[in-house]
Design brief:
The protein is mainly alpha-helical. The protein has one domain. The protein has helices spanning 9-21, 29-33, 38-52. The longest helix is centred in the C-terminal third of the chain and has 15 residues, at 38-52. The radius of gyration is 10 Å and the shape is globular. The N and C termini lie close together (11 Å). The relative contact order is 0.26. The structure holds protoporphyrin IX containing FE. Protoporphyrin IX containing FE binds at residues 1-2, 4, 12, 15, 26-29, 32, 44.
């Protein structure tokens, strides 16, 4: 699993949107991203960018 520490909210939210739409092929993330709405993805991305990244 890639580390998300230090990534911008735009990068994370953009990746989740691409996984969700299928524009970016992946193994597990396509399925995980489909579980979140656009707003929820943005909230997760903002949280991680604010220092919540594992
Ligand atoms: C809300 C929780 C999660 C978020 C926000 C998230 C976000 C991301 C992002 C932004 C990337 C792209 C990283 C890059 O460009 O290098 C990624 C890739 C990846 N993540 Fe997640 N992730 C989450 C949960 C998980 C979980 C639970 C797993 C494993 C069970 C996982 C496994 C992976 C893997 C294997 C990749 C590489 C792409 C793929 O093959 O699917 N992620 N994730």
């Amino acid at each position: 699993m890639p580390s998300l520490a230090g990534r911008s909210a735009e990068e994370v939210a953009g990746a989740l949107a691409a996984f969700r739409s299928g524009a970016r092929p992946a193994t597990v993330m396509t399925r995980i991203a489909k579980g979140f709405s656009e707003d929820e993805s943005r909230a997760i991305a903002d949280y991680l960018a604010a220092g919540g990244a594992p």
